[in-house]
Amino acid sequence: MATTYNFTNGSIAGHKKQHATTPRGFEPFMLRNVVDTQYQNIANDSSIGQVLNIPAGVIVMGCWINIITVDAGGGTVSLGVTGVDATKWGSGIALTPVGAKEVTGGPSFNPLYFSSADTIDILEDAAAAITTAKFEVIAWCVKSSSTIDAE
What we know:
The chain is mainly β. Helix content is 0%, strand content 40%. The chain is built from no helices and nine strands. The protein has strands spanning 4-6, 28-36, 48-54, 58-69, 76-80, 93-94, 109-114, 118-124, 134-143. The strands form two sheets. Strands 1-3-8-5-6 form a five-stranded mixed sheet, with no helix packed on it. A four-stranded antiparallel sheet has the order 2-9-4-7, with no helix packed on it. It starts with a strand and ends in an 8-residue tail after the last strand.
């Protein structure tokens, strides 16, 4: 049975809370979170890991994973938004090449508007349990508004 793990709020013992970033005006900003599976393994059962909190009214222009420590078991993930598009920024992303910044299976520049607050998630692709991986998920964002008069 798939489990949902929250890597954003400090509920996993030893895992730091996601650093909060407050958008200023309509300037681009980055959101990032380091996920360390030594504190919480991700089961080999299509489990979901919530990795970035995205506020309402934000366009995520692109998203990618930077591998810091490889996963010994050869786990793979999808990167997206569960219930919207679980593979928006890639599927079958191997957690093995250190320093890999490219997303396999999908474009890292692929905008998505968040009309309400949600999370960017990783979905374990049922290749293997993820037990030793450490990686950061980075999203390039722009605050948006439907009430701005462009003239």
